[in-house]
Design goal:
Strand content: 5-15%
Number of strands: 11
Radius of gyration: 25 Å
Order of helices and strands: HHHHHEHEHEHEHEHEHEHHHEEHEEH
CATH class of one domain: Alpha Beta
Largest sheet: 7 strands, mixed
CATH topology of one domain: Aspartate Aminotransferase, domain 2
Number of helices: 16
Bound molecules: pyridoxal-5'-phosphate
Structural class: alpha/beta
Length: about 475
């Protein structure tokens, strides 16, 4: 047996490279990353997925090792051939960015592999995550006893918010079908998903009508709640959007929070896309009232430019969040001797137990740059949207949707003759085929509509001017061909 153990040890040791091997591996990875970043500025914003379908054995797992060079070569060929989310011309959906300092932080987080769920395991790590939660709670205006968690993204953050709201209202399964949730047709689908996962599939949804700015009509919300109460139903949750994914509209948070307080409903604000705009002055104004909500979510991987996997949920009353998520286990009894029962630890605020040290990828960029460049970048994106809104109207044939609340602009081309929907579909396709920029489309009021989402870290005025030029060029070409 001892011989077998020795054999196994020798085999297993290849998982833990020595210092020379580490240097070799690290250098290759850094060279690869630098090459990617050097290629990025001119990289196409869009490449049709069918052009290069990754499908071959070199992605499969086998018993035999390959060297890093070959593995990176495969990665370059099969995965990293298109800029898409990282490029300046990516203006579709909600663009993602990825900060260099976050990548370095992820490296460190994986090397040191701190567990930051409880103070016992990493007091400093817990403090870092707390400071980040406090920083976000401060810029949304939440009180000192608010709590929050760094999640993998907005969907899980919404789930935590919904579950906390459900438990705060002490909803019982037997009554679910009499309980009512209020949202709009523009509410992100992850709310519907969260309701179902939280066991609330049977509760009644009311989709409150939108005004001309695609925002929830507060008056209609109040009417709906009143009617439902009169009918003996139990209204308990309002989901407001602070930046809808479709148009970037911010629901009237002051009016909605007034209604939530009068009728004692939980107000959850889905600000996955929009909440970080509270860091800049014009954004702060638009988001006024957000501090009066009961829970808020935001995505660091959207308007804080972090790599994917960075969400946050904040709950005004931290104890309520804890009540829904705390736990105990005999094998964890040692923790209790170090973690004071009066304090709330990250692991008590989430469905997760073991999770990565997510805070580091937000903490390091904030430390290295300070907050000012983030504020500047957000105000820049917001003003770029207003600039585009003014400019695109000047191009003959183009009309716009509502004035942008944040950094998404909706617009379309209205041809003199023929089907406008068909025209815009063609326009969208021809922009994608061109590849220099990448827009996406939606349907508003039954109309095929183009949308420009300005959120990329590398998207500046030159890109917006290029968009205007491409729109002009493509619209003329389609007019001529039709
Ligand atoms: C992106 C988004 C979500 C979902 O967040 P993920 O991080 O993708 O899970 C939820 N709500 C809104 C408004 C969003 O824009």
């Amino acid at each position: 047996m001892q011989e077998r153990i020795k054999q196994l040890e020798n085999k297993a040791r290849s998982l833990d490279p020595d210092v020379e091997t580490r240097a070799l591996l690290r250098d290759q990875v850094i060279r690869y990353a630098d090459k990617f970043l050097a290629w990025l500025p001119g990289a196409p914003a869009y490449i049709a997925p069918t052009d290069n379908v990754p499908d071959s054995d070199d992605l499969s797992i086998s018993e035999d090792p390959v060297d890093l060079m070959s593995a990176l070569e495969v990665l370059g060929k099969k995965v990293d051939y298109s800029g898409v989310t990282m490029s300046s011309g990516h203006l579709a959906f909600i663009p993602g960015s990825g900060l260099y300092a976050s990548a370095l932080a992820d490296y460190l987080a994986a090397i040191t592999n701190r567990y930051v769920g409880v103070r016992f395991a990493s007091p400093g790590g817990v403090d870092i995550e707390r400071k980040l939660i406090r920083w976000m709670a401060d810029f949304v205006g939440y009180p000192a006893d608010a709590a929050g968690d760094l999640t993998s993204g907005g969907s899980i953050a919404n789930l935590v918010g919904v579950v906390t709201a459900r438990d705060c209202h002490d909803l019982r399964a037997a009554n679910f079908s009499r309980t009512v949730v209020y949202m709009t047709g523009q509410t992100h689908h992850s709310i519907e998903k969260a309701l179902r996962i939280a066991g609330l599939k049977e509760c009644i949804r009311r989709y409150i009508p939108l005004d001309d700015y695609c925002r929830m009509q507060a008056g209609a919300l109040e009417d709906a709640i009143r009617n439902d109460r009169k009918s003996g139903l139990y209204p308990w949750l309002i989901v407001a959007s602070a930046g809808t994914t479709d148009t970037g509209a911010v629901d009237p948070l002051i009016a909605i929070s007034d209604i939530a307080r009068v009728y004692r409903l939980w107000l959850h604000v889905d600000g996955a896309y929009g909440v970080p705009f509270a860091l800049c002055e014009p954004g702060k104004k638009i988001l006024e009232g957000i501090e009066r909500s009961d829970s808020i979510i935001l995505d660091g991987h959207k308007a804080l430019f972090l790599p994917f996997g960075s969400g946050t949920v904040l709950v005004r009353n931290g104890q309520q969040m804890k009540k829904s998520h705390d736990y105990g286990a005999s094998y964890l009894q040692d923790i209790g001797t170090f973690d004071s029962p009066d304090e709330i630890y990250p692991a008590e605020l989430t469905p997760e137990l073991s999770r990565p040290f997510r805070g580091l990828r937000l903490w390091l960029p904030l430390k290295l740059a300070g907050v000012a460049p983030f504020r500047a970048a957000l105000e820049e994106k917001l003003l770029l949207a207003r600039y585009f809104y003014e400019q695109v109207k000047q191009i003959p044939g183009f009309t716009t949707g509502p004035y942008p609340d944040l950094s998404i602009v909706t617009f379309r081309y209205v041809p003199d003759y023929g089907d406008a929907n068909e025209f815009n579909r063609k326009l969208n396709t021809s922009i994608q085929q061109d590849g220099r920029i990448f827009l996406s489309s939606t349907v508003l009021d039954g109309k095929f509509t183009l949308r420009l989402a300005i959120l990329g870290l590398r998207t500046h005025k030159d890109t917006i001017d290029l968009v205007l030029e491409i729109l002009k060029e493509k619209a003329i070409a389609i007019e001529k061909s039709g």
